[in-house]
Amino acid sequence: MEGRFDAGRTTTDAGWLVVREIEARRGWLERFAGCFVDHREASRVEHAISVQVKQRILGIVAGYEDVNDHETLRDDALLALACGQEDLVGEHRPRERDRGHALAGKSTLNRLEHAVVEERPSRYRRVALDPAAIEGQFVDCMIEAHDEVPERIVLDLDATDDPVHGHQEGRFFHGYYRSYCYLPLYIFCGDHLLCAKLRPANQDGAAGSVEEVARIVGQIRSHWPEVEIWIRADSGFAREALMAWCEANGVDYVLGLAKNARLNRAIGEALEAVRREQEATGMAARMYRELRYRTKKTWSRERRVVAKAEQLPGKTNPRFVVTSLEAGAFPAQVLYETIYCARGDMENRIKEQQLDLFADRTSTATMEANQLRLWFASMAYVLVAELRRRGLKGTSLENAQAGTIRMRLLKIAGLVKISARRVYVSLSSVYPLQHVFAQAVRRLQAAPA
After folding, report:
1. 229: β partners
2. By the 8 A CB rule, do 359 and 61 touch?
C-alpha cells in the first residue's frame, strides 16, 4: 500500500456546504465584515475584507485555529466558494507567483487580526474596525434567529478564566484561578451568545456588567418593547450597582448570594433540622426558607433572599439566592431548583466556545488583537449554534457540541469539479450521516431570510 497527497482539487471540509447555507439566508458574516473599514489603496487590494473575515471564521468552524493553516487552505476551492470568492482557483490573480491561490495567506490574515479601532488607522495598519458595531451584531443575530417574539428571555452572565502563557498586554495573576489570565465576561440568552468581552484579570468578575446589560437590554427592547427580561448569574454578580440598575429599568434578576455568618444564623433552625434528617436516613436532606435581607453597608435596600438549607453526608451545604421575583408567583424551591440552577447550562456553552472554537486562543501581544480573535471565535459559535438549532433539530446531533458536529458532519472529504457554469462536489457514498447532512441543508435552505 502506498499513500500520497496527490488527490488534486479535494477538500477535507465539505461541511462548508452546510454552513454556506446559513450565510446565504442570514448574511451574518457579511454584516460582521461590514464592521471593518478598509483604508488600503484600492488598486492594490486583491482580497476584500469581507472575504478575509469569512475565510478566518469559517476556518475556525472547521477546526483551524491558526492563520498559519490558511497558507494551505487558501487553495481550497470549496472554502473560496463559501467565502463568496468569484475566482475559485486563483487563475486570474495579477502576479504569476500568486496564481493558483484563491484566498488570502497567513500574512494577510495576520494583518486583519491586528486591525485597529476606526479612530487610529496608521500607515502600517490600514484595516480598522468599529467595536460597538461588532458588539451590536451579536444581539442582532439573536433577534433575527427568533421566528416569533418571545414572551420572556433570560440573560445569563458569567466570567471565566482565559489563561495566558506569555507577556501579553493586560495579563495579571488571578488568585482564584491560580494562573496568569484574562477574565472575559460572557452573556448568553439560552444558546445565543450576546457578549464576549475580554478583560484583564485584576478586577471584580462583575466589572462592566451594568454597562453591557444596559446596552443589550436597550437593543433588545428597541425591537421587542414588550418582552419580559430577566438576568441570572452566580454570586459574583450580586452587586448593588447591577441590582439597582435592574430595579430601576424593569428587569428582574436571580443572582447567587455568597453565604456569610448572618445568613447562616438566619437559617440555623433549618440547618439543624436537615442535619438530624440526614443522620436518621443517611441520605442528603434539604429544605428551603424565605428571608428578607440587607447588607450592613453595600445594599441600598432590603431584598428577598431564598435559602437552601442542605445537609450532605459529612458536609453542611447552605446556599442563597437574591431575587426581585415575587414569592407568590415563584416559591422558594421552584425559584432555586427550576430557575436558578438552570444557569449551569451557560457554563457548557462557554466550554464549547473555548474548547471547540478556540475562544481562548488569545496569544497575540495586544488586548485589542486578542479581543478580535475572541470575536472571530464568537461568530463561529453563532454559526454552529444556528446550524444545531435549525438544521439539526430532531436528528442525533441536535444536542451535540461544536466539536462533535464538526467531526461528524463537517469533516467530510469531497472531490470538487469546476466547470464554466457549475461547481460539483462529490461526497462519499458510504458516509454514515448522509441523511443528516441532506436534511440540514434542506432545512437551512427553507429557513426565512
Report:
1. 153
2. no
Distance CA 427, CA 51 (A): 25
Instruction: Please report the sign of the dihedral spanned by the C-alpha atoms of residue 254, residue 218, residue 221, residue 156.
Output: negative
- DSSP 3-state of 75: coil
Backbone angles phi, psi at 22, to 5 degrees: -65, -50
Q: Model confidence at 421, in pLDDT bands (50, 70, 90)?
A: confident
308 CB contacts (<8 Å, ≥6 apart)?
286, 287, 288, 317, 318, 319, 320, 336
Element (H, E) at 252: strand 252-257
By percentage, how much of the chain surpasses pLDDT 90? 85
Confidence category of residue 103, pLDDT binned at 50, 70, 90: very high
Burial of 183 (0-12, 13-18, 19+ CB in 10 A): buried
Cα separation, 325 vs 342, in Å, equals 16
Q: Structural domain boundaries of the chain? A: 10-129+364-446, 132-352
Q: 121 is written with which cell numbers?
A: 488607522
Question: Residue 364, Cβ neighbours under 10 Å: how many?
Answer: 17
Please list the alpha-helical segments (H only) found in 89-152: 106-113, 131-145
Task: Count CB atoms within 10 A of the CB of residue 190.
Answer: 17
Please tell me which residue, 126 or 184, carries the higher pLDDT value. Answer: 184
Enumerate residues 6+ apart whose C-beta is below 8 A from 254: 230, 231, 232, 321, 323, 325, 335, 339, 340, 343
| Distant-in-sequence, close-in-space partners of 87: CB < 8 Å, separation ≥ 6 | 80, 93, 102
* DSSP H/E element including 230: strand 228-233
Fold for 132-352, please state it: Transposase Inhibitor Protein From Tn5; Chain A, domain 1 (3.90.350)
Q: Left, alpha or beta for 434 (phi > 0: left; psi -120 to 50: alpha)?
A: alpha
Helices (H), 62-177: 70-73, 77-82, 106-113, 131-145
Residue 262 CB-half CA count within 13 A: 9
> What count of residues does the chain have?
449
pTM for the whole thing? 0.94
Check if the beta carbon of residue 36 is closer than 8 Å to that of residue 127.
Answer: yes
The mean per-residue pLDDT over the stretch 59-71 comes to: 95
Closest CA to 266 of 302, 314, 219: 302
Indicate the SS3 state at residue 249.
Answer: coil
